[in-house]
Amino acid sequence: MKPILDKAREDHYAVAAPNVLDYKTIDVAIKTAEKKNAPIILNVTFETNDDLSTFVNYAKDKAIHSKVPVAINLDHGGDYEQIIKSLKMDFTSIMVDRSMLEFEDNIKEVSEIVKIAHTLGCSVEAELGHVGTNIGADSEGMLGSNTIITEEDKKATFTKVEEAVEYVERTKVDCLAVAIGTVHGLYPKGLKPSIDFELLKKLRDAVKVPLVIHGGSGSGDDNLARACKEGICKVNICSDLLKKGREYINNGYLKDSDDMLTKLMYPLPAYYAGYSDMLEYYIDLFKSTNKA
């Protein structure tokens, strides 16, 4: 992942990092990237598949034969044992999430993993500050107990510039996920996130590795386009891709010649079409089209 993101940093665009949840979404994500002649980063979670090794091997085979650069990234890697297991697979990068730890503990754990990963030729992403979550919120405005509701909730965990500089120097990570206003998951209806672009500028100027934002879905086209232009090099997206897939199913997105029974019995083609169209839209928005 490092060379893909280093190029994005140099040329002021961002690479889309969609979550791939099954074998078909691996195919769809890579084909969409090839259509746009864009690099792509496949985000895989440890819970994606019961046989994760086979799943990652499948992604690796597709990546090797792809016409565009493809990275396979472990998203939000968990405990030490899980990380080591992942390094034995064919991931090209791992995201080590220790953002809930105290600063020194975060550095200690991530530094140890970076040494091992770099020995094996694997890139490492880490997070400083903490990107909150909208788990429990849906597009109709129903809120759950874990929902980030106010801007104050987010600002309390924003990334600090001085800490980010020290963190990168001490851990030797290849890229850094920062908290500047986005959150994971769907936003409640009517809630629009704000991005601290002044903080982003300071981070971009001070930190010498590519910056990442998690929680791209629902963050607003203007916000994301500007963030990618002004320093973000990787944008994680998932909820919007899944949401668009569901919309296509609900709207009966198949050819007019297909009868209603076909649409009801075989919804998955519509789902994957929605996923692909939304991913294509974001690739254009992030300005990575024709950057392969």
UniProtKB/TrEMBL annotation:
Required cofactor(s): Zn(2+)
Cofactor-binding details, from the entry: Binds 2 Zn(2+) ions per subunit. One is catalytic and the other provides a structural contribution.
Example of a GO MF term: zinc ion binding
Positions annotated as active site in the UniProt record: D75
Binding site for Zn(2+) 1: H76, H184, H214
A Pfam family matched in the record: F_bP_aldolase
Residues binding Zn(2+) 2: D97, E127
The UniProt record lists the keyword Repeat: no
Cleaved signal peptide residues: none
UniProt keyword annotations, A-Z: Metal-binding, Zinc
Coiled coil stretches, renumbered: none
Name this polypeptide is given: Ketose-bisphosphate aldolase
Organism, as annotated: Anaerofustis stercorihominis DSM 17244
